[in-house]
Structure formats: structure tokens, C-alpha cells
Amino acid sequence: MPRAPFGLALLAVGLMYLLGLATAPFLDPPEGFHAAIAQTIRDGGDWITLRVNGVRYFDKPPLLYWLMAGSFSVAGPTEAAARIWPALAAIGVAAVTGRIGMVLGGPRVGLLAGLFVAANLGIFVFGRHLKPDLPFVLWIVLAYAGFVVAYRGGGRWGLALFYASLGLAALTKDVLGAIGPLVLVALFVWLTRERPYGAWAPWWGIAILLGAALPWYLAVELRNDGFLWYTVVDNHLLNFTRQRLFPDEDVPLGTLQFLGVTALAFLPWTLALPWGLRRALRLPWQDADARLWGLLGLWAVVVVGLFTVSPFKLPHYGLPAFPALALLAARAWDDCIEALPGAATPRALMVPVLVLFAFLGVALSLAALDRLPLPAGAQLSVDVAARNLAARGQVAAGSPLQAYVPILLKSALVFGAATVAMALAVWRRWPAAGVGVALAAMIAFLPMAGEAMAQFTRGRSVRPIAEALIQRLAPADRIIHEGALENSGSLLLVIDRPVHVVDGLQSNLAFGATFPEARNVFWSPTRLQEAWAGPERCFLVSTLAPDLSVARSLAPRHLLVQERGRWLYSNLPD
């Protein structure tokens, strides 16, 4: 791939993802909770058994938390030091996806694929959001890159990369997610009748995978009886069927919601996927590269299809398919530019994008004027916390429309200008100009989406409650949190004592709560009432509205602060 265009593209992607990481406080949930786990490691905690607030935590493997503990040692537990890792992972995903595209389709396919996978709302949001999903996607796309190298005769190092990346994926998010590419590659090898099968699963490759992931899993099981059952069976297999013994608060999406969110998150490149999938999956596959394009098609279809039929799915579950989707969409655009037989016509690809940009320009303008209300249920489809609150009969906190008006107007101008430019490209039938306009529009729009994310985060942050607590806390005071602690995890970053939890066992800490040291962390409402009536000052942080909160049963009850969907009570007045 030519170095100058690809280097400039990576620079643009890097600026999009790295600038402004510290402009907003941690979003609660889930960012503060993840940061608190890493802070516990940094402060001398156990690097094997993860803990938060003194409770063992088993929902995610440790790799992201290890990385954050390292950056916290340098810069402290700041937003930028935490979010840097998903941002770097997003840049890595773009680079590796571009490399696969170059190998299979040439320089232009590689350049387009790298930009497509970075310039969409789904990857952008999670690339600037503290969760393990983007690091996990990076290992998955690296694994497929290794397999592509090996399948094209590039040597054993490709298979070594394949198995090592899957081991790191198992250390980043979950073991079953790492097994998925193994199953898909096995299906691919069977479909293509490769012989011998064992050549693709050498003993040393399996040893690399197990050597990367197994020691940590075994060490945690030896220290925490039942961990493997919890993480493999309860947290994955039973979660898939919605039969968990230790459920958390997350309310899954419906099938149409999931498909809609996934398609919208990958716009505008979703519009080219019918052409890309048709060519990739069309038989017969004439050569090795055609078969590998078929593997990419299978990757996209299986990931999206699996979660479509799963009873449990969240908005980000389609992200592992995005590199494959970007490669397929890039090939469709490249075929159109080259005017290959059977390729989409220029207008077939550009007119849908033109219509989309025109719609966005009008819709954003009307939204800024408060003439276009958000469709009913739209926020609940993409906002897990809002959906969880809605299940309890509450409405999530948010910022007023006025805070978003400048962002909406700037975004409307971007898509308005892109509509005019795309109309010219459609008229002249210039697909190369059309894809350039689409990329320019997305690269201009995504930083504005970042501004909106920052404003949204400020509207949900626990910071006002934390500041109010810090101003009032005395050495002997007790802090109690009502509901799952991950809903206000940022509290743990700024206070100097453990937090007691009442009615918070429907949580990521539910299994950790079964261990003896957690008994004094999780309180019953009766124990809260006893402490509340005692001589020590108690503070109650609640995410439940007063008519639903345990605070109704407490007397005396003094409401000190009500801010951003949280309430701070005390048994003593200020």
C-alpha cells in the first residue's frame, strides 16, 4: 500500500480518536466502574483476582485493566489515561483492516476499508468509550489477518499470529468470543475441502493460544472456586438463553432493534453491503483470494446472524463484524470505480448515500429548531442505562436540547454540503468522487459526534454527587449506595473508604458477593435502617426516584443533593 495516502489516513483517524479524550468525566455506568477496578490494581491490589470496592469481580478478563493500571501509574486515574486504550485499539483496527484489504484487493481497497471501519458511528463511539469491546475487536481482526497470511502461503508466522491473537482476545473480553473465529475458520476449511485439516490446527498453534490465556483462567479458578463455571456457563451459555443464576441489570434488545442499531451504526457504508456480500459469497470461489473473501462474508453474516437469533443482545454486540463489513463495502466501491462486470452502477451506490445525507441535513436542522422530536424508543435502542431505568419505570437523566443546538447546526451544515457535492458526483457518475465525499462528510461529522458524546456524559456523570460527598465526609461517616454499584462507579475513584451496597445484587458483582469478605459490603434494607438510626452519620446515594427508593423507609431523611438522575440523602442535616 502506498505509504503517503495510508499514513495520512491513519493520521486523520488518530486525530479523530485521540483528541479530546479528557473533555468529559467518566460516564456512569460503566466507565467509572471499569476505571475503579484498574485503580485497585494500581494501588497494590491483586493482579490475578480482580476486585472493586473490596469485592471480587469476574465479569471481564484482566488485560484492559492491566493496561489501565499501567497508564494510571504514569498519569493517575484520569479519563484520558483510561480511554487511551480503546482509542489506540480503534486505530489499530483501522490499520489491520486496511492491511487485509490491500493484500486481498489492492491499495485502494485497503485504503477504503481502513477508513470505512474507522469512519462510522459504532466504532467511533466505542473507540472513545471505556469498555473492552474495541481492544477485543482488534485481537479478532489481527487473528483473521494472520489466517489470511497463512492461507496465502505466507508462512507459519501467520498461524502463530492467529492463535496468539485469539489467546489475547480471551484475556480481553471472553473465552467464548475467542473460540468463535476458530469455529468459523473450521467451517471455512470444511467448506473449501482443505486437506489435511490438521495443518490449520498445529499443536504449537493450540499451545500458543492456551499459553496466552489458560494460565490466568486456571490461576483464578484455583483462587476462586466456581469461577470457570460462572464465566463460561452462567455469564455466557445461560446468558445466551436468559437463564442466568447471577443476572445483571442489562435489558436486551429485540431482534429488529439489534438489526436496526447495527445497520445504523455502520452508516453510510451499510448501503453498499448487499453488493459486497453478493460478490463475496457467490460460488464457485475460483482461487485462494476469492475463498478468503468468502471467509470475510461468512464472518460478517455469522456474527450478525448469531446475535440476531440470540435472546440476549446489546447494541455493541455487532462490533466484531465491522472490520469484515468494511472490507466488503470497500470492495463494492472499488468494483464500481473499476467498472467491473457485475459491479454496482455508480448511481446504485451513490444515490442511497445522497438520499441519506439529504435526510440527515434536514433532520438535524429541524432537531436544532426543536421541530423534530426524537422518535419514541430511539434512545432506548442505543442507551443501555436508559433501557435499564425504563424497565424500573424511570426516565434517564439528560442534557437539555439547548446544549446540543450548536452541534446539531454544525452537523446539518456538514451533511448539507455533502448532499450538494454528492449530487454533483451522481450527476457526473463519478464513484471515486462520491466515496471521497462520503468519507469527508463522516470524518468532518464524527468529531461533532464526539462533542455530543461529551455533553451526554456530563449529563449522566456522578461528579456532582461525588463533590457533594467529599465536601461533607468525616472520618467516621458511612456511604451506602442503592442499586448496582456500577451505576455510580466513579465514586470509588474519589472517596477513601468502601461503599456499602443495598439492593444491589442484580449486578456484575453478584457472584463476587457470594465470597465471605463481601458480607459486610452488601447490606439488607433492615441493616441499612439499623445503621441509619445509629449515632454515625450515613449518606445514601441512590439512582432510584424517591417513590421507588429504599429512602422512603428511612427516618429522619434529609435530601442533600438531587442531580443528574441521582439522589444524595443523609440521616443528619447539613
Brief rundown of the structure:
With 574 residues, the chain is mainly alpha-helical.
Can you walk me through this structure?
With about 575 residues, this protein is mainly α. The protein has 3 domains: about 220 residues, no CATH class; about 120 residues, no CATH class; about 110 residues. Helices cover about 60% and strands about 5% of the residues. The protein contains 23 helices and 8 strands. It has a 6-stranded mixed sheet. Strands 1-2 form a two-stranded antiparallel sheet. Strand 3, helix 22 and strand 4 form a beta-alpha-beta unit. Helix 1 packs antiparallel against helix 4, helix 4 packs across helix 15 and helix 16 runs antiparallel to helix 19. It is globular, with a radius of gyration of 25 Å.
Keywords:
single chain, 574 residues, mainly alpha, 3 domains, six-stranded mixed sheet, two-stranded antiparallel ribbon, 23 helices, 5% strand, globular
Strand proportion = 5-15%
| Backbone shape | globular
Structural class: mainly alpha
Give the strand order, joined by hyphens, for the main sheet. Answer: 5-4-3-6-8-7
Helix content: 55-70%
* Low-confidence regions: none
Mean pLDDT: 94
| β-strand number | 8
Count of all domains? 3
Any chance you could write out the topology, listing elements then pairs?
Layout: H1 3-18, H2 31-42, E1 51-52, E2 55-56, H3 63-75, H4 79-105, H5 107-118, H6 121-127, H7 133-151, H8 156-170, H9 175-191, H10 203-223, H11 227-240, H12 255-265, H13 273-281, H14 288-309, H15 322-338, H16 346-368, H17 378-382, H18 384-391, H19 405-428, H20 431-460, H21 463-472, E3 478-482, H22 491-494, E4 500-502, E5 522-523, H23 525-532, E6 538-542, E7 558-563, E8 566-570
Parallel strand pairs: 3-4, 3-6, 4-5
Antiparallel strand pairs: 1-2, 6-8, 7-8
